[in-house]
Amino acid sequence: MTIPKIVILTGAGISAESGLSTFRAQNGLWEGYDVNDVATYEGYIRNPTVVHDFYNMLRRKLQNPSVKPNAAHFALAELEQKLGTDNVLIVTQNVDNLHEQAGSKNIIHMHGELLKVRNEKTGQIIDCFNDVNYQQNKLIRPHIVWFGEIPLQMEQIYDALSQADYFISIGTSGNVYPAAGFVQIANQAGAKSIELNLEPSLGESLFQTKIYGPASKVVPKFIATLI
Ligand code: OAD
């Protein structure tokens, strides 16, 4: 039997039960902040300290010992272990490192990573576990893709989507492109498309199979059918 090629798109919903806020829920991250201030390059130029404070706060939250991968992250890591890194790719919109902590290896962080910063001049990407002080280093920006910027590794993602047998979308509201359009590309490539989310996403009608419930429950159950 040939091993299926599986592309998994994850969003903030997969990390909600690990204690990290989603963006668009009531009390979600974007409720207390103006996206234009903290998630655009223009906002950064206007007030870099406010932007660094925001990502410093998120970086600290992520490293709180209570924040750990949940059963959904572990199920995806097990899938990769069973089917091989060549056959399972996680494309995550999340800037946390919970997929890595769970043991997944083949991961694309299309929106960047909270535990990295980037030198604006050289493009060098550097690990970062502490607060960034703009006054001390004006060249370092968060390694985060802001609105209006191009997500990372898009060529690799489209290549994987074009070969996928399964496309599984987990914990994303379908508000943000290009990720929200991946299901159409996978469908065109003949993949089986599956949505696992707490509630129907904006792109719900594009998926062939939909299962709704908390990620820690629905993801392990569905992944078990593929192993
Ligand atoms: P959203 O906050 O837009 O959506 C999170 C989704 O997860 C919603 O559809 C929720 O119903 C669902 N959800 C919540 N709790 C869940 C649980 N326990 N189990 C399963 N699903 C659950 O987050 P994203 O779709 O990830 O970009 O947002 C996409 C992008 O918008 C983010 O990467 C971020 C943001 O602006 C950047 O910062 C660049």
From TrEMBL:
Catalytic residues identified in the record: 111 (proton acceptor)
GO annotation, cellular component aspect: cytoplasm
CDD domains noted in UniProt: SIRT5_Af1_CobB (cd01412)
Keyword check for Zinc-finger: no
EC annotation from Swiss-Prot or TrEMBL: 2.3.1.286
Reactions catalysed according to its record: N(6)-acetyl-L-lysyl-[protein] + NAD(+) + H2O = 2''-O-acetyl-ADP-D-ribose + nicotinamide + L-lysyl-[protein]
GO molecular function (one): protein-succinyllysine desuccinylase activity
Binding-site residues, NAD(+): 11-30, 93-96, 171-173, 197-199, 215
Role of this protein: NAD-dependent protein deacetylase which modulates the activities of several proteins which are inactive in their acetylated form.
Record's protein name: NAD-dependent protein deacylase
Gene encoding the protein: cobB
